[in-house]
């Protein structure tokens, strides 16, 4: 994952001490409504999720970034610095036909009580820009057709609305995409390098001349 800092936020890797945050995050009723598989009924499930969130920390572009406030977050000054408010993910998106993933997905989740301050939009925009700068040409995002809030985030961070699709997750979703020319510093990386495991990506990038 790519650690980042924005005007109000810090994006960092998940750590073992973030278990309670994982439970709070997945208690958001809107999240469970639109992604039923995100239901986290007990500590064992939360621990499995946390393990997944920590699993891509060494990958140069994939990963799960915890969003925390650098200061009071602009929400009236009542929220303590360091408060965790959401996550941004970048990972291969599963195809509905079971074929090997061919593109990275960017997605986001937020704690219910911290909605409405633009934190996820600010964080997702920073991650999208950073992943493109790293040499990834194309990313997609998908949202439930009724999840208008998530669709607005995709538009606000500059993604193009493609429209309804059943290409991913064995479900009908609304597809968004972001395509930018490859950064010249990563021009020699082979197509699809961003989908490789962390150790293979590291070998490829260590051979690059900047």
Structure description:
This protein has 6 helices and 8 strands, in the order ββαααβββαβαββα. It has helices at 19-25, 29-34, 43-54, 119-133, 148-156, 198-206, and strands at residues 4-5, 9-13, 63-69, 84-92, 104-110, 138-143, 160-165, 173-179. Strands 1-2-3-4-5-6-8-7 form an 8-stranded mixed sheet, covered by helices on one side. The longest helix has 15 residues, at 119-133. The model has no long low-confidence stretch (mean pLDDT 91).
Mean pLDDT: 91
Q: What fraction of the residues are assigned to beta strands by DSSP?
A: 15-25%
Gyration radius, rounded: 17 Å
Shape: globular
Could you name the ranges where pLDDT drops below 50 across 5 or more consecutive residues? none
The beta-strand count equals 8
Terminal Cα separation, in Å?
A: 20 Å
SSE layout and pairing:
Layout: E1 4-5, E2 9-13, H1 19-25, H2 29-34, H3 43-54, E3 63-69, E4 84-92, E5 104-110, H4 119-133, E6 138-143, H5 148-156, E7 160-165, E8 173-179, H6 198-206
Helix pairs in contact: 1-3
Task: Give the gist of this structure.
28% of the residues lie in helices and 23% in strands. It is of the alpha+beta class and 210 residues long.
């Amino acid at each position: 994952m790519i650690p980042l800092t924005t005007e109000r936020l810090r994006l960092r890797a998940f750590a073992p001490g973030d278990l309670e945050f994982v439970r709070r995050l997945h208690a958001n009723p809107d999240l469970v409504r639109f992604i039923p598989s995100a239901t986290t009924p007990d500590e064992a499930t939360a621990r499995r999720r946390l393990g997944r969130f920590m699993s891509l920390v060494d990958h140069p572009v994939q990963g799960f970034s915890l969003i925390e406030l650098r200061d009071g977050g602009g929400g009236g000054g009542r929220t303590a610095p360091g408060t965790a408010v959401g996550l941004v993910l970048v990972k291969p998106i599963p195809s509905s036909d079971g074929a090997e993933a061919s593109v990275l997905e960017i997605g986001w989740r937020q704690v219910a009580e911290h909605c409405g301050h633009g934190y996820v939009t600010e964080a997702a925009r920073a991650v999208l820009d950073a992943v493109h700068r790293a040499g990834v040409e194309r990313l997609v995002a998908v949202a439930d057709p009724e999840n208008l809030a998530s669709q607005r985030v995709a538009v606000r961070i500059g993604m193009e609305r493609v429209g309804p699709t059943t290409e991913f997750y064995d479900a009908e979703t609304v597809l968004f995409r972001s395509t930018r020319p490859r950064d010249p510093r990563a021009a020699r990386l082979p197509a699809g390098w961003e989908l490789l495991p962390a150790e293979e990506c590291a070998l490829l990038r260590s051979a690059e001349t900047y």
